[in-house]
Amino acid sequence: MKKIRIVFMGTPTFAVPCLRVLAEAYEVVAVVTQPDRPSGRGKKLTPSPVKTAAVALGIPVMQPESVRNEDFHQELAALSLDFIITAAYGKILPPFLLAIPTVGALNIHASLLPRHRGAAPIHRAIMAGDKESGITIMHMDKGMDTGDMVVRESIPIEAGDTTGILHDKLAILGAQLITAAIKAITDGNAQRIPQDHNLATYAAPLTRAEEQIGWHHSAQVIDQQVRGMNPWPGAYTYWNQLRLKVWAGKITAACGTPSGAVMAVDGGLLVATGGGAYLITELQLPGKKAMSATDFLRGNAVTAGTVLGKTDLM
User: Structurally, what CATH architecture does the domain formed by 208-313 represent?
Assistant: First the structure.
């Protein structure tokens, strides 16, 4: 029996479990990923996690600067593909590429579409205070995450989930669902479920302005911001004109004024907010490693009444 032929397109760590599962079950004839990019202090050219995984699996790798390149188009067309599968590749594929596979072009998207279409669905789900997230396997079309759905499965967002934790859960779920979707399609049992575009939201890339904590917000919103930006890019505030990354904390029922004022330094930095108070439990000074707030307080004198942040965001 002829093995299903697939080109897999992905770039970050999220896509790696999907690639490994597909390579085990089907014939992945090539992997397409973003070109090597400068990384780290030395700005050394570094392969994407997907490229590293593909090389380890012995799968040929393509790294076009543009998916609209005619030579790239011809290379894919010559591979006699059944499927193109994408997972966080980083580019919208043009219609002429989507038409190449004989069976379909599917995307593994880390949200419950049509909610959180776009580039940062995991961050945005946590920052919005969503109670659940999930994976949607969808047919790609010319829009951004607008195609008909094949399968959609939810998981709860737990109170302590960060973007990193939810990312890992969804990467595993995506790998499980993509093989189920391919089987349903090839067996003729799959439905094409249109999205309700009236319910769509857009998960825009994070901006630098969103990283700074506005202490005028409620402790709940600040907690969502901190968890949503962990492990990247990190929410921050200012202390003694130093940028202080805030990696973890807890919502408390305490209250005080003004917003941003340190209310107590027992077990962390208890900071007044626009609703309740937020206990910072893990933080990071510029050029230092992340540390517990307790360790930070051992070496830094912070007293009740100290106000964190910039006045325009308090």
Answer: Roll (3.10)
Give rounded-to-5 percent helix, strand, coil for the chain.
30, 30, 40
- At 232 the pLDDT is 96
**Regarding the domain delimited by 5-203, which CATH topology (the fold level of the hierarchy) does it fall under?**
Rossmann fold (3.40.50)
List of E strands, 215-261: 235-239, 242-252
- Identify which of 139, 93, 148, 124 has the alpha carbon closest to the alpha carbon of residue 201: 124
235-239/242-252 β-pairing: antiparallel
Q: What is the DSSP letter of 252?
A: E
Q: How confident is the model at residue 314 (pLDDT cuts 50, 70, 90)?
A: very low
Residue 20: half-sphere exposure toward Cβ, Cα within 13 Å: 14
Question: What digits encode the pLDDT tens for the residues 239-274?
Answer: 999 999 999 999 999 999 999 999 999 899 999 999
pLDDT at res. 59: 98
d(CA 230, CA 253): 23
**Across the chain, what does the average pLDDT equal?**
96
